[in-house]
From TrEMBL:
Keywords: DNA-binding, Nucleus, Repeat, Transcription, Transcription regulation. This is Transcription factor MYB78-like isoform X1. PROSITE patterns: HTH_MYB, MYB_LIKE. It comes from Cymbidium ensifolium. GO terms for cellular component: nucleus. Its main location: nucleus.
DNA sequence: AACGAGGTCAACCGCGCGTCG
DNA sequence: GCGACGCGCGGTTGACCTCGT
């Protein structure tokens, strides 16, 4: 079989055929590249996508892109919809409570942005990821973070205890000491972040006088860290 | 006013996983 | 079992914006 195959490939007509197929493939690829749009979305494209999804629903993104007449990949359409056009997307600054929650969840899960985003209604994983990279990672301060995270864990655990959620012995602990039982998951869905934030603020954590950090609550969070592994 | 540095964020890319024929 | 396809995720890029000099 291999002998006859090599004979075929070596023959003149076979080489011509292969060349012809290659040329055709290149031509097709070139057409696709010319037709597919990239980069920022226009208002018209946004309208087309929004209208199409409102009529037909989302999913099957590649088919959707073709049927809607958008010269975009399915991936691009999905991203645009999920991160920007979806009606329940929240825009604007990340609040102090949200920052606190991101900090706490990141200490538990690391860079699991989509998982973290599930706990911040209206926020996308992309937004949280960008927030972390630009506002937190940049100002990483290894001196400040470990004691703060330790305090957050204490506050969370004491709140859990008040609610009758057992964490220490009954459930398995994550790499940062947070439990992962179903009971705590239920609790986590109802974390009172305002209470937690005010508790920490009352304790003077935002100023961090003893650790050399300065600034307001918002400013403080900018001293946050790279991730759980940094101070593990 | 002009310019460069740094920050922000929308969009892209590559990879892995699940599903289906 | 296998390949094609769709989808979701995390990492990265690059255009645009802001601010300081």
């Amino acid at each position: 079989l291999s002998l006859s195959l090599s004979n075929l490939i070596c023959s003149k007509s076979a080489r011509e055929l292969i060349h012809k197929v290659d040329m055709e493939t290149e031509k097709q690829n070139a057409i696709v590249e010319v037709e597919l749009r990239r980069g920022p979305w226009t208002v018209e494209e946004d309208l087309i996508l929004t209208n199409y999804i409102s009529k037909h629903g989302e999913g099957r993104w590649n088919t959707l892109a073709k049927c809607a007449g958008l010269k975009r990949t399915g991936k691009s359409c999905r991203l645009r919809w999920l991160n920007y056009l979806r009606p329940d997307v929240r825009r604007g600054n990340i609040t102090a409570e949200e920052q606190l929650l991101i900090l706490e969840l990141h200490s538990r899960w690391g860079n699991r942005w989509s998982k973290i985003a599930q706990h911040l209604p209206g926020r996308t994983d992309n937004e949280i990821k960008n927030f972390w990279r630009t506002r937190m990672q940049k100002h990483a301060n290894q001196q400040c973070m470990p004691p703060l995270l330790e305090r957050i864990r204490t506050v969370v655990d004491s709140s859990r205890a008040v609610m009758g959620v057992h964490t220490a012995s009954a459930s398995s602990s994550g790499r940062n000491g947070f439990s992962s039982s179903s009971a705590t998951s239920n609790y986590d869905d109802h974390l009172d972040l305002k209470d937690m934030a005010s508790t920490l603020e009352e304790e003077g954590w935002p100023e961090f006088p003893a650790h050399g950090c300065e600034g307001s609550m918002l400013g403080f969070w900018e001293f946050s860290a790279m991730g759980p592994n940094m101070y593990a």
